[in-house]
Amino acid sequence: MTDGDYCILLELDNHKTNASILKELKRPIQIIDTKKKYLPILSGSEEWPVVQMANDRKNFIDEVINESFKRLKELRPGENELIEELEKTRYRENMRCKTNPWKVDPEDDLDFWNSVKSRLVAIENRSPKARREGAEAILFEIVVRYANEIAGNFKPSHHKMARVVVTFGFSRLLNAAKIKKFGAILRKEYTLQDKIQIIGHTELLRKLAKIGTIVMVPTHFSNLDSILIGWVINTLGLPPFIYGAGLNLFNMSLFAYFMNSLGAYKVDRRKKNLTYLQTLRTYSNIAVRNGSHSLFFPGGTRSRSGKLESTLKLGLLGTAIEAQRVNYKMEATGRRSKIFIVPLVINYNFVLEAPSLIRNYLRIKGQERYYLEKDQYDSSTKIMKFLFEFFTKGSNISVSIGRGMDLFGNYVNEEGESLDKKGNYINTRDYFTNHGIITEDHQREEEYTRMLAKVIVREFHMINRVFASHLVAFTAFRMMRKMHDQLDFYSFFRIPVKEVEIPYEEFRETFDRVRDGVIDLFNEGKVDMATHLTVDLDEVIDIGLKNVGMFHNYRPLLKNKQGNIITQDLNNLYYYHNRMDGYELEKYI
Length: 589
Description:
The protein has 21 helices and 17 strands. By secondary structure, it is of the alpha/beta class.
């Protein structure tokens, strides 16, 4: 079956689809082929762009340093401007070292920034020219420090080991759980594709990766996303991608190993100063320019609310547009000739960090009414415990791969040609020209970046695959909120959970209307949906209740002894409800 072909899966996990529901569908649901094998698109690891970059690591870092340094001098041309910028950077970094240190930070961190302070004091009374030269020397040293901190340290042998551990280890756990017989842990009947199901435009992605440079832009819900996407990339036969991983993950030895193995470079979200951000942008820009397939989390960090991202960070997206302009100007050939954007949505029934993320979100939104708690999964041991539970219990994940686009939001065909809405060819080189000549125009490219961000958000909502767990959470929270609409939003979260019981028949009737609303959206191409939503109504509800937030100590949704719908945690329920935010389904409640 070729990419784009679809069919209805008539039976899943002993649940048969409902014929009347199938008749309502105006387009078919994509089948998930868990047995499909993808051959590598490149013959050997020596051809991987990330390996070529790693082999030339020193020269690459030197290029990042020199280009960052040059750009920063342009942004702060006067000696007073530059010194003021250095003072702000030094102050912020000094405060970070004292108030928010991490284990992964360099041992000499505070000493370094104290030395910067001393050197800035030492140049105060020099001539303007000498002050400028002294400030530039300090700037250069800071850029060197940042560039070496950011740089990834990919090693093919570590990547191979990480791949073996993930594929072999967890597939064995999966077989043991599915077959439930002695010795099943040694069997190969089930693979990770039975657990982590890949859907969407996989073949188009593979073809585009052969002829151009891919920038994959996924949603971001969990610290597990990076490892999960790394496995997806490998399963699809693609070479490893580089991507920015939060430096906080390198606090955990297990994650640090996997991050380095999967092509990560480090992003420290504590650092907001111009020098760091410009060095980070330059690193990404040069990597993409050189043909390294890259992965950006355009939301910037994990979704605290559980919602699909609606506002994206533009910095790293902008580096891809800049890289495309530079490559067009240099008349680059081969994979460097064109850059493609591929959206990706990770569809979870649960997110292990949901309780701490939603508390953080509500604390920020409600200010003093909520307080911040420590992330529940902050050590390698806890992560391993979670992974063991996940792969030995029943909840699946699906990963939806969107259709490839150019950097201006136009879809592309299998040859990588950009097409307008009528299917006509577009020459994207023209986006960068003025009177036929490619020109550098930062204001123009910032506008292109904003346009691209809007298209990516639209694509996220279109390829989002609705699970029953998402829908029961949305329906229940909206019904409970309606029962207590006399309370303001934050007061609602403080009511005893025993006061939010929903009679099952009332819930069933409302859920039926909401599912019909999802089917209408699916028919219009505004959302995707899982095949299990086509089974009989009570079975869909049971599937949703079984899977939503299934590993949390306090379940977001369940039935009581009377068969009615209750919650043990309104915060968690709100988090899972938010997955369906933005589709206007509240009109069915």
